[in-house]
Amino acid sequence: MRLIAYIVIFSLIREARKILVVRLLQRMVILSGKKLRTILIKDGTCKTHNNARLKCDDFMNQRTNVARRIDVISKEEEKRYEIRLNSSLDVARFLIMQGDAFRGHDESSTSNNKGTYREMVDWYKDKVEIVKDAYDKGAKIAQ
């Protein structure tokens, strides 16, 4: 009989713990998402778990993450990139319509014959001032 009483008491204690845990979780859910997130960050289980959660958040929100953390691109830089891209595509379209080759044997900047594509891009830069500014002030990769 005592054994049955102990089992019943033990099961009641377990149920009481479950109820307390459920009530605690309900209170945590009532908190706003930001407050709950800061509680989880401060009282998180371990560093690796927090790092994994942050990486998951970054992955789920890639657009703002890339703009915010890696490199903030200004509107001017974006416009210069668009000009460089459009001018390169214009030159490529022209060479394709003519059926000309794009490459030369020596494409270094000091070469006299850099190849048709690079010669055309340089010619385009000389003729259109906006394109020249975009290439001169643009990224080092574009030069």
Automatic annotation (TrEMBL):
<dbReference type="InterPro" id="IPR025398">
    <property type="entry name" value="DUF4371"/>
</dbReference>
<protein>
    <recommendedName>
        <fullName>DUF4371 domain-containing protein</fullName>
    </recommendedName>
</protein>
<dbReference type="Pfam" id="PF14291">
    <property type="entry name" value="DUF4371"/>
</dbReference>
<feature type="domain" description="DUF4371">
    <location>
        <begin position="48"/>
        <end position="139"/>
    </location>
</feature>
